[in-house]
From TrEMBL:
It comes from Parasedimentitalea maritima. It holds the Pfam family PAS_3. Its EC number is 2.7.13.3. This is histidine kinase. It catalyses: ATP + protein L-histidine = ADP + protein N-phospho-L-histidine. It comes from the Bacteria. Keywords: ATP-binding, Kinase, Nucleotide-binding, Phosphoprotein, Transferase, Two-component regulatory system. InterPro entries: CheY-like_superfamily, HATPase_C_sf, HATPase_dom, His_kinase_dom, HisK_dim/P_dom, HisK_dim/P_sf, PAC, PAS. Gene3D superfamilies: 1.10.287.130, 3.40.50.2300, Histidine kinase-like ATPase, C-terminal domain, PAS domain.
Amino acid sequence: MSEQLHVLRRCDAVDQNQDDPVFQKITELVPQEFTKALTDAGIGLWLWDVKADQLDVSRGMVQLTGLKQLYRGSRLDVLRDLIHPEDVETIQASTRRLFEDGLPYETLCRMRHSSGHFVWANTYGSLVRDENGEPQKMIGIVRVMDELTRTKRDLLHAEEMARLGNWTVDLATDELIWSQGVYKILGYEPFSFQPTLEFARKLRAEEDRAMIEGLIDEAVKKSGAFEYRTRVPHTSGKEVHIKVNGAIETGITGAPVSYYGTMQNITAEIQRDEQIRQSQKLETIGKLTGGVAHDFNNLLAVILGSLELAQDDIEDSGVNELIQMAIQATMRGVELTGSMLSFARQAKLKPQILDLHSVVEQTNSWIARTLPENISIETSLPTDLWPISADPGSTENALLNLILNARDAMAKGGELTIEAANVIIDSDFSFQRNDEVSPGQYVMLAISDTGEGIPANILKEIYEPFFTTKAPGAGSGLGLSMVQGFMHQSGGTVQVYSEPGVGTTFKLYFKALSRKIETPTIEAAKTKTANGAGFKILVAEDEKEVLEILLATLRQAGYAVTAARSGDEAREIFEADPSFDLLLTDIVMPGSLQGTTLAQLLRKQAKDLPVVFLSGYASEATVRRNEVRSEDIRLTKPVRRIELLEALEKTLASRVEPKL
């Protein structure tokens, strides 16, 4: 008992006079009553002899935890036996701050209980020094699960769950106090330093500082509330978006004495809103692009088909050369539509197993000749890159776009570097852009330049469709949009790192294959339909001009063709004469029957009817599995004549002879 009284005197010596009559009366109580009073109050005592490193806890604290043994030993050993492992370092850090900086010692920790659970406890301590200022003993009390402890525990839990912290500023002294949550938001160890108001002001994004100070000043004048959002730096080097709510506290005279409030980490919310905005933007652009692509591709189909038919009847080489140029321009129109669909992630990709080393080498072999002499090219391409699965044409286009952008960024010359590497992305992998990328093996392809760099204020806009910093006529603004859309559609991502005056690096991350997949080879089917003689084809197409081109192309190839302007009309024709050898149908048509439902209906009458589908753009060709068969061929308009005829020949190859 004398030990308990000694501790109590030490603990109280800073602020209490030992001659206090009330104190004297308390110390005269019998040991059992004194211990019971402390225990009933949820209080335990402890004493740490710093020099001897001997920590003792009172019997009252043992009773509070329900444990039978009385803990005594080196401080670290006692802490490890009594305190939750995650809280030991918190206690030691608070002790260091007391010893080194004289900061108050107070902790909220979890202590073992005989029930097998941990109980929450508040600890308070004071340091006793000798005449030379050297630490001698540390004494303190523990409150276990009192109302204050519960409140602090609940507040700590609430702050953690809401990514929240609280703070207060004294108007007379400008003293700033942060809670543990604020330190965590900024990435600091809780209570590792005493913040100042000036330090806090400099954390705010520079462009927001004047606005924020104005809000606070106005709130102080009117004793009102304020709210603002800004960005602050995190110790990891990233920025954190925060939301601050504040209010004014007034004194007994009604004058403001302090302002206080909360700080919340809303980075995840900002990122989520950005993802939703991006998703909605893509959905809107996708709908717009899809409609444009459908109509545009129908127009291109008419132009392409007419040019190819005209080419057959013209022997003048000069005219044929002009027609060929027009055909090439038409195909460039197809590529433009594909670029728009790629940004909207609706492009029809045909992934193949690729070796990026070979893709880069092949592209570099010809692109180098198009670069000016004042730009040098360096490559670093390991021969053991993992294989990837990607659309070859889109991969080459993405590489080409980035190389041309690098060229344009180095108008005065510089160095272009192309490098690749195998990388492992895990849950801790950090991207500058907050893309969601599943963990696994990736092949990284980087294109770097030593050009002028991209200013930070426009870095977030570079993937926006039609956004460009180039002079009018020098760029469409679709290049990077297409690259981003292609990479996301392929299960990867694109990251950009840029510094004005230093240069820019774009990194493409392709999902790697764990092993090479053998692609089955399909033997060319022998067919008797080289000229289509005798085979009857039912063509369903609602666009009049497209239908006329199809009819002319097929009849020229020797097919017997019957035309329908809708699915409903095609059904009536087939029901009257089911002797057709093949159905060639558009997927989207007016009326109750679309191309896929038309095929299903006709196959109830003719089980083995072959079908070739035409679509205006890629997403129209994405139909449910039960609507098509594996052997059905789907073509995207405009389709070259040779591709159409080859598709028909392949589909009809199983028919030994026509039904005619």
